[in-house]
């Protein structure tokens, strides 16, 4: 086992620095909890004024403690934490949990950074600061101040918890115990000055006592490490599930492109979790109750629907309760499977009369034997991907009828699909009985449906290999080497644009050149630098002032469309120059871009962004002027392959108009998928110099696609 894992979860000796002898204080809890719950290890309380705490010897300093210490729990004021860290280094303590607050969460970021820097110098690993501690149920080691440990510590199970909220650690423990959930390890990360969610999840993947890792998150601080943990977990048959408390807006205020604004919300987390096979849930109930569904034996594999949406067979003794779950499943695109004639005939041969309906209702005819026969038949059938058993009042008063048939069938063999239960009444005993036999039981129809949808729609992570085309790389490197810094300016800029002093904004002409080099088709164009504005492109044309200082030309009045001749073009250019001179007098105009008007069947936006939380993102959205208003968008971690690009196209609702809807002309969606893949190749550039890139609009035609406008923001070294 990893030495860091051993020091955190399985120490032989712990030191409690700042321990109190007053039973009512938080700083007295760790010692009391460790002894109350039977931890067999050695406790070394550190208290400057006492030689004994709760019947055990105490020491004035860590230097005075005899023998080795594997884990130190620090509870002194923030100003004394650095001294405690130095003492731990002298004692060669490998890991230190810092309960003390007063660091980054209180605005003292510099103090926390100094602490983390010194810990790295000393070779000491930190949990926290502002960390409520560790609960190792396997080893009966509650090294924490969480008040929930004043109660009982339930038997160990296969579910680990990593939480960015310390208080939620106890809440999850108590709520889980009420459902019969058995935990293995639980840890709070505090401010994550050193050891964080990703590294802990990675350690827990190798824990033989853990099959499911639940994450309670407020943000992502080390997405690459968490991605690594998720991929390793999938490889060994383990699962991660995450509940995200808030929605990230990090970086959105700094975005120049529409893509940046649209990629700053919860969809960023969705894209990250989807890419790495992490199940995301939106309710705390679901996070706890989904665990048995994910903790499936390695011999069992979740059936993946091939070429269709997943289907769930529903068998019920309460029609109304089942209908609530089916209704919620429908919102996620999960169908309730209707039994075919062959299955109905099979059941009839066993004396069970069924009819073809989305819900198999056994309310009046159910006996334990018939209930088990239907469940057994559904688990073996090939017309459904999961089986949902919905129980009514019998779950509360007749568990032999409602619950025991599920347990019997579940235990008969390693089925290739999940069996889950929704109990309509309050039936705690039945829920605990289900959990003890590895069956996910749900208290609410919403949690039940959401958990099933999350698992059935989960896709395995896919590695997309390759390199960015050499021509695109060369053009970006040339731009970084030769173009002066340009910061957006003028009254038309969006909030935050003036902050891009360390970036380089490529104008539309150069951006479209990069798109060409990527393999993303662009419209024909000519750059004119002086009057007369003569060109050889076919009329009518669009004219735009080219300026890296005008990333949003429409708002600045720097675009004219549908110009029919030279006279109209000359007038339009003069008008645009006058308007820009008023609203953005500092803007540097390179020339006038002329493009033929390009008709299409639909307009889309294809965007790329290096997100500060999760890294490269690719975006497909409804395009044109209303891109942000409609917010009809699909996000993925970049780069993507053609199959993923097609999934993104399916998720953009407005693209239904180019799929032959109601006889409308079909657009070239394969060409659109190829364009999405091409843009996503920016993620393959060494050093990832592209902060943002956007082609908007991209015209989807009957044959091919064509980018009309473009913007690229590069990171300066």
Compact overview of the structure:
The protein is an alpha/beta fold and 717 residues long. The protein has four domains: 3-246, NAD(P)-binding Rossmann-like Domain (Rossmann fold, 3-Layer(aba) Sandwich), CATH 3.40.50.720; 311-456, Succinyl-CoA synthetase domains (Rossmann fold); 463-523 and 599-717, D-amino Acid Aminotransferase, Chain A, domain 1; 524-597, ATP-grasp fold, A domain (Dna Ligase, domain 1, 2-Layer Sandwich), CATH 3.30.1490.20. Helix 14 (368-380) packs parallel to helix 17, helix 20 runs antiparallel to helix 21 (508-518) and helix 25 (642-651) packs across helix 26.
**Could you report the average pLDDT, rounded to the nearest whole number?**
88
Major β-sheet profile = 7 strands, mixed
CATH class of the largest domain: Alpha Beta
Task: Give the spatial strand order of the biggest sheet.
Answer: 9-8-11-10-12-13-14
CATH superfamily of the largest domain: NAD(P)-binding Rossmann-like Domain
For the termini, the CA-CA separation is 40 Å
Helix content: 25-40%
Describe the protein's topology.
Elements (H helix, E strand, L loop, with lengths): L2 H7 L3 E5 L11 H8 L5 E5 L5 E2 L2 E2 L13 E4 L3 H13 L4 E4 L10 H14 L2 E3 L5 E4 L4 E4 L14 E5 L2 H13 L4 E6 L8 H9 L6 E6 L5 H13 L3 E6 L13 H5 L3 H10 L3 E3 L2 H6 L1 H4 L16 E6 L2 H13 L3 E2 L4 H8 L10 E3 L6 H13 L5 E6 L2 H4 L1 H4 L1 H7 L8 E5 L4 H9 L3 E3 L2 H12 L13 H13 L20 E4 L1 H11 L7 E3 L12 E6 L6 H4 L2 E5 L2 H18 L7 E6 L5 E10 L3 E8 L4 H4 L2 E5 L4 H10 L17 H12 L9 E11 L4 E3 L2 E6 L2
Parallel strand pairs: 1-2, 1-5, 5-6, 6-7, 10-11, 10-12, 12-13, 13-14, 15-16, 15-17, 15-18, 18-19, 19-20
Antiparallel strand pairs: 3-4, 8-9, 8-11, 21-31, 22-25, 23-24, 23-25, 26-27, 26-29, 27-28, 29-30, 29-31
Helix pairs in contact: 3-4, 6-7, 12-19, 14-17, 20-21, 25-26
